[in-house]
Design goal:
Oligomer: single chain
Number of strands: 5
Radius of gyration: 18 Å
Number of helices: 8
Shape: globular
Distance between the termini: 28 Å
Order of helices and strands: HEHHEHHHEEHHE
Structural class: alpha/beta
Length: about 240
């Protein structure tokens, strides 16, 4: 973690990649990221093993963006992530529906998820013992979730100087990465009012909701302007 701390402490402009949610539509995000990766590779020909984590100082995401952000921070290429993401998507969204059947039309109006498939897929992709403070994570990482009980935003980051990274009351560094991402990808149900909805919202034992349901000022990029999480405001030049 020393190398990461030195990188984040450096008095240089920081480069941020913030990824939104959207379920399986994250495949569109990967298409854009592939183009960005190709452009950056061309600009850094000296680095034959270039990864997005080499370029961006903070990669953050909510919901499906949290999955992609975590894989990028672990040093995966976009092609590798695309394969993992599609495999995971098939497990999560794999239920077939008869679009022509009037009795099933209502199902198209709501998201449909295989919750066990999410957990198993995340363990396989991220590692079942990888923590938020693991040295396997090569750059700054922020995963945004939301508590269903208090309606408060929970940004979980790996910045060693973050207030909750290694505090007496909360140790983000020891959280399992797959559980953190799972908390961010929890499908939101209005008010979590029904028993089924409460079950969907109850994640990592603390009732976290889909991180996509966050205000714009609580997206990952906003952490660079919030010293509670260890990121100091910086001014970046165009390009």
């Amino acid at each position: 973690m020393t190398a990461l701390l030195e990188r984040l402490d450096a008095k240089t402009p920081k480069k941020i990649l913030s990824l939104d949610g959207g379920g399986i539509r994250g495949a569109l995000t990967l298409g854009y990221l592939k183009k960005i990766e190709d452009i950056l590779k061309a600009k850094h020909p000296e680095n034959k093993d270039f990864r997005m984590s080499d370029y961006f100082d903070l990669i953050g995401g909510t919901s499906t963006g949290a999955i992609i952000a975590s894989l990028l921070s672990l040093g995966k290429t976009v092609d590798e992530i695309t394969q993992l993401y599609m495999d995971l998507g098939n497990k999560i969204f794999g239920e077939k529906r008869n679009w022509w059947n009037p009795l099933e039309t209502y199902k198209w109006l709501k998201a449909n998820y295989d919750y066990k498939g999410i957990a198993d897929g995340l363990k396989n992709a991220l590692g079942d013992d990888t923590t938020l403070g693991s040295d396997k994570i090569k750059t700054g990482l922020c995963i945004v979730a939301k508590r269903a009980d208090t309606n408060s935003i929970w940004p979980m980051i790996n910045h060693p100087r973050g207030r909750y990274y290694d505090a007496a009351t909360s140790k983000n560094k020891d959280l399992l990465l797959w559980k953190v991402v799972r908390a961010s990808t929890a499908a939101r149900s209005p008010a979590c009012s029904s028993p089924r909805a409460r079950t969907r919202c109850r994640l990592v034992g603390n009732g976290r909701q889909d991180g996509k349901a966050t205000a714009p000022d609580r997206k990952p990029w906003a952490l660079f302007f919030d010293d509670r999480h260890g990121f100091a405001p910086v001014r970046t030049s165009p390009g």
